[in-house]
Amino acid sequence: MDVRHPMTTLDRKMLDWFLSTAKPVHILLGKSNKLNKDDANIALRHVAKTLAQSYLQCTVQMSSSVSKIGVDQASAVVATWFNESLKNKKPPVKGEQTGGETP
Question: What pLDDT was estimated at residue 86?
Answer without folding.
Answer: 72
